[in-house]
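Agenda item 2: nicotinamide-adenine-dinucleotide complex prediction
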Amino acid sequence: MAKLKIGVFGAGRGIVMVRQILGNPDAELVAVCDKYVPLLERCKKVAEEAGLTGVEYFTDFEDFIQCDMDAVVLANYANEHVPYGIRLLESGRHIMTECLTCATMKEAVELIEAVERTGKTYTYAENYCYTPVRWEMRERYRRGDIGELMYAEGEYVHDCSSIWPGITYGERNHWRNTHYSTFYCTHSIGPILSISGLRPVKVTGYETQNMPYMRNLGYAAPCGAIELITLENGAILKSLHGSIKNNGHSNYQINCSRGAMKDIGDGQLSIYVEGENENCRGKREIYKPAPVVIGSEKSGHGGGDFFTTHYFIQSILGDPVAKERAIDVYTAVDMCIPGILAYKSICNDNNSVKIPNLRNREERDAYRNDTFCSFKEIAGEQYVPNNIQEDVQIPDEVYEEVRRRWIAGEPG
Ligand SMILES: NC(=O)c1ccc[n+]([C@@H]2O[C@H](COP(=O)([O-])OP(=O)(O)OC[C@H]3O[C@@H](n4cnc5c(N)ncnc54)[C@H](O)[C@@H]3O)[C@@H](O)[C@H]2O)c1
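Presented output:
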């Protein structure tokens, strides 16, 4: 059988997918696109070291999309996945997008309808769902080992200040500088939705202050964000994320009617299980779950980076297990829109906001023109600044200094 021909758009984070495709027996890397040539050269080196010399490299998306490809991985800017993704779907390609799913509620509706219209495969690369511990939590929760979910915590606490020059390049309008606090909610919410299979129905958003350690690097928005989310069964999820200081491991835990599970770091799961009529007399255990695919643990993000590309490829090829495990467009939207709506909540004195179920066509119309966000070109008249608590103005010299540090290879 001919190999699946795959292109990668965005060669920064995209190098991870390039490596995964190069190691996959069913797929072939055929093209990479990035306007920043040094990143293309890095991909070329990696591909040639793997013995692949026929890959095409592009700096312009318009040339890239003409290439002979069955599927494309989008690792371009986090707030620009949908317009490029829809063009690719409509040109007959399957797509997998990096995080996040969409930048606005309008885009959420448009993306879902493009996937439905074209019938092509859409997969969301939410890698934090696939570490051996979080996958074991999913398997055991869904098997009913600890009863029904009542409360969950998902954290993605990543203080990015030291790497800020290398990931924003001193660009004032880079999405990492213009996004609002609750935008990047996927790594804290995603794993809990993946484990529980539950849909979010209501959200209240909160944010910390902005701090000089981020403001002096060009980021004016609050450093930390919290979403308090009601899930469809009445359980509450507390999601915490952002560039805040962390004393160790990010927490993922679920508390249920007959027990609890917690990812305690170092690949270990802590579980407490009660039998029927065994209130407070259950058993505790700590163990290291084995990876679902041997060898996957060598990939990044605790082994999660292997599975997104693997399940994308296998679901296009029709494998039913991969289709069930890959994250589809509806769940991808569920993992993302609580962050958009949480910022609406923050802008409205922390009022709670309904999270629509965009699987239902009749719920979509209310959001078709909703471009609320802090990305000026995308929002148009519905633009909101990303620092509503105080009007933080960052002088050009700050970005010039960050750029200097990026070029010099200095940390933030
Ligand atoms: N899941 C994870 O663990 C994880 C980790 C890092 C990044 N990401 C995601 O990966 C994506 C890329 O992030 P990044 O860290 O590489 O930084 P980034 O967003 O700065 O990189 C985007 C890359 O795409 C290129 N690009 C964007 N638009 C283009 C266009 N129109 N034509 C040609 N090239 C274009 C840029 O030159 C850049 O190299 C984002 O969506 C981010 O959220 C995910």
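Discussion summary: The longest helix spans residues 329-347.
Owner for follow-up: CH.
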